[in-house]
Amino acid sequence: MSQQMTIDPDIIFSSMRNGIIVVDRNTKVLLMNSAAQKLLKIEEEEYAGKEIHQFVPNTEVQSVLESGESTIGVKMNINGLLCMVNRTPMYQDGQLIGVVSVIQDISQMEHYHSILKNMERIIEFSMDGIYVVNKEGETLLVNSAYEHITGFKREELIGNHMANLMEQGYFDQSVSLLVLEKKKQVSILQNIGGRKEVIVTGSPVFDEVGDIQMVVTSVRDITQLNEMNKELMKAKTFSEISNNRYSYSMDGTDEKVIFKSGQMKEIINKVRQVASFPTSILLTGPSGTGKEVIANLIHHESNRRDKPFIKVNCGAIPEQLLESELFGYEKGAFTGARHEGKIGLLELADQGTVLLDEVGELPLSLQVKMLRILQEKQIQRVGSSKVKQLNIRIISATNRNLKEMVEQGRFREDLFYRLQVVELNIPPLKERPEDIEILIDHFFSYFCRLYNIHKLLSNETKSILQSYHWPGNVRELRNLAESMVVSVPSFKIEPEDLPPHFHKIALPETSPNLKLRVEQYEKRIILDALQKHGSIRKAAEYLGVDHSTIVKKLKKWE
Fold first, then answer.
1. pLDDT tens for residues 85-142?
2. Against a cut of 0.85, is the pTM above it?
3. Could you write out the three-class secondary structure of 514-555?
4. I want to staple 288 with a disulfide (CB 3.0 to 4.6 A). Which of 84, 169, 473, 499 is the partner?
5. Is 59 helix (H, G, I), strand (E, B) or coil?
């Protein structure tokens, strides 16, 4: 039979890592283990029978002896170390005979606790959202940034499993679950609550044996970044509208090319033939003939229709600004320049089309640079030594005679021939009278629909408009149509409603005598009353005549 081994209590006492000090009721030290001796930096012979106050001046042993009550978790500074002391009174036969103090060095623990607290502050005040789950996929921690980014409160999330949160619509997918599955760092785009996009990166935290203990996810809001990216893409496609100096055109407009004449049919056929090629086109003709409409058609019929279409009015931009607007500039290129520099209109139109309206106003100093673009397909910003390749189609428009300007030395001959690879001359409206009637009908109907107004043009009015010489061409006709629709109160627009300069045409043909003019005026009043009141009887009551009078006049006028 084996003999039971006995262990000396002194060995156990000395082996304990925490310091133990035993004092009698007179506060004299009876026992002190080696851990306590090490902590107090004393030898064994030095403590026996001595007052504990000699070694621990701030001891609270006396209060325990007086109260007979234990004190637990009291923090003390002993020899420069932060310690936690538990004091327990000793009783024998019901009599208090001393106190046992157990001292634990917590300086290292406090150090790590301080580090942990600092880490918590760092996590809490991080600009990125932080989301931590355990190895089961349950939420452990969420910082303030995550709450701000997502709009969710941590109380809603902590303790909940990621799969349950996905089912409840908090987010569309969980990077934490993907990390737990793949056991490696994963980054994804995550949709938060169906209203915001964030980029999330989940990183696994492994223990000593290589098992995942938790997943730490950083979350960054990219909604604003996406908006900025959209704005940047838009800026690369179109330039800002500034003082009507240039504008951009998009599909979906109500603009149509309306024509009946053989001249315009020939022009449209030529447009469709050349639009698909990157050839330079020069549009000539008087102001208001529709050169910009033809330019829109060229762009729309080309394979660049989905690319930028930048329109530049060379006569509207001050000469000192024209170069920087067209070619752009680097930062610090001149006084007043933007700090970050600026992209030019021509560069914005890369892969697309540029309309140089009023190209005859282009200064000679810029004509050289424009020639380089046409010849070498290269552009150089103001203040830059770098050259960039450019792929644009240039359409020019002018109401001036560029050939005469070349002869006068006001326009470069080489640039003229580069711009005039294909020339389309848009004739004035007076040279294509067959287009006038359909343009009148088109614009009059268009503005009636636009403003939800129902009006008619009398035959006499139409006749006058068709006989007019239209010095302002299509632009003048369009503006007059809008003016008649919005400013004439009558349902039917008569010659008298036209501007004064039309009356020179109207009076000889429509008003040969007083009787006819009075009858026309009477007819207009009656028709307006019928339109306004909806019935002959009500119109007659409004005009103060018998309804049979109106019936007779209507029969007379058929």
1. 999 999 988 889 999 999 988 877 777 777 777 777 778 878 888 999 999 999 988 9
2. no
3. HHHHHHHHHHHHHHHHHHHHCCHHHHHHHHCCCHHHHHHHHH
4. 473
5. coil
